[in-house]
Amino acid sequence: MPIQQLTLSQISQDVQQCIQNCLDCHSICLNTTAYCLQKGGHHAEPAHIKLLMDCAQSCQNSADFMLRSSDFHARFCGVCAEVCEACAQDCDRHSDDGADTPMKACADMCRRCAASCRQMSMAMA
Amino acid sequence: MPIQQLTLSQISQDVQQCIQNCLDCHSICLNTTAYCLQKGGHHAEPAHIKLLMDCAQSCQNSADFMLRSSDFHARFCGVCAEVCEACAQDCDRHSDDGADTPMKACADMCRRCAASCRQMSMAMA
Amino acid sequence: MPIQQLTLSQISQDVQQCIQNCLDCHSICLNTTAYCLQKGGHHAEPAHIKLLMDCAQSCQNSADFMLRSSDFHARFCGVCAEVCEACAQDCDRHSDDGADTPMKACADMCRRCAASCRQMSMAMA
Amino acid sequence: MPIQQLTLSQISQDVQQCIQNCLDCHSICLNTTAYCLQKGGHHAEPAHIKLLMDCAQSCQNSADFMLRSSDFHARFCGVCAEVCEACAQDCDRHSDDGADTPMKACADMCRRCAASCRQMSMAMA
To answer: What domain of life does the UniProt record list for this protein's source (chains A, B, C, D) (predicted)?
Structure first.
């Protein structure tokens, strides 16, 4: 179910939305890693796969720090926004101008997550 | 958004639902850990907190193996069902007969996740 | 430093050795993932990369359950032994009869970790 | 075995030492979490347990970004140094002026990890 329907304690609406985006971005990046390895060719370029793995792990990390209401969540969200943005651009580059639907969907999700992580990091600054 | 609306490659409806349950269960267990530490008293019993941490990590692990379409996902879902079941029972025990809403919600989510992980592990047997 | 020199509470010698093997196996599998993507060709086969990612995550998971002295550590070590064994065999297959030193080192580490996880899982059975 | 004896590809001596410190710090923080919950009293204060969980996860995250030779490892090491430093100070506060050996060992390890993560983050700046 969408995270807004989970009963989470002491998590504001804004933070919930950012957690949801991070979990979604983690999921799609991990799944896209498998898709890209399967496709091969430029999809399987080392730098691209590594960026997808980076983004998947960074988003999980951010989500967990928010779920624990950690004091450090905004610091990690700041770095996470950079990772997501880099991953979005790289997914775009491999998306065949949007014709490659999974790559396009991953790029869009990474960009959405970058935006909410950036906002989270600035809210705390 | 619910995971069904993400564009995931080569993940069946059943597996998507189990991934969603695992991510939800991970989220609520991690959040409940913070809630229980805050509450103190019997909520903060070592065995209870440890079980919540176990369940959070096991569910993340299961979700990731399914997102990668790993051959081992069913094996991990089998163990995960046991962890979730144990955590559900322990959350019930701390829920003041359901009056403690966060504990009740966590117990329910763990039970739902246990059921879908069990099904996943049997589908592959 | 080797984990035996860390001051860990309530962790027997046997468990410490298994934790060390799991952390080593996690490290080498993650590092080998990057190596294999860089090499390309058969090293970057989807099934091989996926198995390395599976093994890295499973070993981390096992190590964490042991470090928390979780009741479920033996169950996870049992599955982890299977993952490590599969990864060892796959790394051997890509090791050019041992001439590819990083692949050979990864295969050996996976086999060592499989053995200690198997032992851990049986000690509790 | 110490990570320096693992055959890791394209990881310099400095980075290997930092990975080792991060893995050690992850291990001791996770183990100390269980120790503190067991002890109860001030050891189990929510903020303290949360910081130990933060530090364990942050160190794992940093280690993994270094093991993948990710471009973002220095950014994460920078935040990780802050988390480790905060955790070191909090562990000191609970160490009974050093008489509580596990707390003292955890504080020392966190401080050592903070130093090498800080250095890693500056090397890249």
So the answer is: Bacteria
